[in-house]
Amino acid sequence: KSIPVFHDVAYKAKDRADLVAGIDEFLDQVTVLPPGEWDPSIRIEPPKNVPSQEKRKMPGALDESSSHSKPEKHSGPELERTGRLFGGLVLDVKRKAPWFWSDFRDGLSLQCLASFLFLYCACMSPVITFGGLLGEATHGHISAMESLLGASMTGVVYSLFAGQPLTILGSTGPVLVFEKILYKFCKDYTLSYLSLRTCIGLWTAFFCVVLVATDASSLVCYITRFTEEAFASLICIIFIYEALEKLSHLRETFPVHMHSKLDLLTIYYCKCEPPAHPSNETLRIWRSNGVNVSGITWGNLTVTECRSLHGEFHGPACGHNGPYAPNVLFWCCILFFSTFVLSSLLKKFKTSRYFPTRVRATVSDFAVFLTIVIMVLIDLGIGIPSPKLHVPHVFKPTRDDRGWLINPIGPNPWWTVLAALIPALLCTILIFMDQQITAVIVNRKEHRLKKGCGYHLDLFMVAVMLGVCSVMGLPWFVAATVLSITHVNSLKVESDCSAPGEQPKFLGIREQRVTGLMIFVLMGCSVFFTSVLKFIPMPVLYGVFLYMGVSSLRGIQFFDRLKLFWMPAKHQPDFIYLRHVPLRKVHLFTLIQLLCLVLLWAIKASRAAIIFPMMVLALVFVRKVMDLCFSKRELSFLDDLMPESKKKKLDDAKNKAKEEEVTPRAGNILVVVSGSPINISDEMSKTTVWKALTMNTETL
């Protein structure tokens, strides 16, 4: 009976004095029998009277400031305020300088080669797609060529000098929304778009440098797992959604003849004809190109020629936008899902029973690259005209009326330089939040990074390149969450398994600068590789996007907690937070996070997407309000940055230590607590007993 009482006393103790008093009472109730003087077969008679235990039950609740009551935050010298101008930046440089040359030596690995080949293909498509969307939104002022050059320049400089070279830079949705709004504004008020954009970019770069100078990156310590996972989950879901959406959009380009009759295939046709009622735009194009409508044999025109002349398609084999394309859409679906499945299977090949360990590890490292090569060869062999990757083949600005250097004022009035301050403030928040949240995710303790990080140096390099890209009229690039997570996952280092059935242990990440550098160097040289890149089908790249989005979801605690809603208690995994937090509180925490995720999605999908970074910032305040709904102890398990596996091992180690203490050993003194034996070694004094018992207060 004494052990449960001491259990209550230990949990209700408010300070060390209460705990020591409880141990004192505990030792007063025990009977110590020296070894060798007691025959275990003889039953010990119970005491004639049992002292009351009520006096040992000390009222009071567990102090919230006790062990493991505060959520672990991002900590370390890189997030400490120095109180000096650019103090954090100087410390980042000093911290990373000793590792600079080793960052290149550590990159000489087959795993790094596999990583950069995979990510080069993964980065190319979004950069070109983003450039194409920018070209449509800005009427060609900034397009695919500018996007390729900007990504290559920014990525190379960032990979060489940033504090965390594992971060991959890319384009973001809010930036595209901002560019559309800015172009429309300039068009409505007859202002030079590129000049005003240059002013905004320079002001944004200046504000980012001010944030670096004032050690503003130290505010990252307030970004907990709650905010990280909501942001990362949203970006992963967007990757998955956009991959599926792009696949579905292929139906517009390659329509399918639904409910067709096989017996009528010989009489199906689709031919080009002049428009019955040409629009004013069509008439203008005909006049400008000197088109003689009556002199054209419309029935002999190709699909491309018919569309360029604004002709119309007529016939039973015609869709809304042109003739039906047999097999193409279904073949694209096969390529898409085959790429995803094959990438996943080859990635897991490392744990297969076939082939030597070296072969399995190599196949696993090159999983995505091998998948792309295999699918390209299959596509060439089948011969169905699937849409291919289009890369600009001439190194020059998209429009002939612009160069590579933009005048910040140009034809605009002088006051536009000052007016650019207002949108620059919004852009600064956008850049800061995107960059730092992604950096926090990459720098998680569970990745076991040994070379440190540099939040101030990262932001400084982004600011410098943002200014350069603004002057050159190139798109702005910032840390890309999914690409960065995929980069880190592709560089994981695991132990070699020697014993049969032994699981490989995670040792850390191969920290180096070579992969990021090679990705963007190769991207800049892509203009000269168009003869090879033109064979890569777009559905294969969409399948790679789906793979990256799904694989990046693994390890996000939020999705593990979502599964618990439909899982009976007996089938729930042994998560550390389920040991210490009531299930209803776990569900409440998950529901709040899910609600925030839905709101973020709604904002990003609406016209208000430009304020998306502000909403991400609001998550920090939502997390602060949650202190009113949850105790600090509960939040320490639900919103902790300590790796799940590490915390579970610590908890298991405590339980194992408790079991070892209870197991009798020869040569020990047997302590009998109201009939329950506990072992204490001969040499243990009363003070030592106190220390031994207080070591595992939570497990008693």
From TrEMBL:
It is a multi-pass membrane protein. The chain crosses the membrane at residues 108-135, 147-171, 191-214, 226-244, 328-346, 366-384, 414-433, 454-478, 514-533, 540-559, 610-626. Residues 5-40 form the Band 3 cytoplasmic domain. It holds the Pfam family Band_3_cyto. It comes from the Eukaryota. Residues 38-80 are annotated as: Disordered. GO terms for molecular function: monoatomic anion transmembrane transporter activity; sodium:bicarbonate symporter activity; solute:inorganic anion antiporter activity. GO terms for cellular component: basolateral plasma membrane. The keyword Transmembrane helix applies. Keywords: Cell membrane, Ion transport, Membrane, Transmembrane, Transmembrane helix, Transport. Residues 65-80 have a biased composition (Basic and acidic residues). It is found in: Basolateral cell membrane; Membrane. Residues 84-643 form the Bicarbonate transporter-like transmembrane domain. GO terms for biological process: regulation of intracellular pH. Its main location: membrane. Coiled coil: none annotated. Belongs to the anion exchanger (TC 2.A.31) family. PANTHER family: ANION EXCHANGE PROTEIN (PTHR11453), ELECTRONEUTRAL SODIUM BICARBONATE EXCHANGER 1 (PTHR11453:SF37). This is Anion exchange protein. It comes from Zonotrichia albicollis. The gene is SLC4A8.
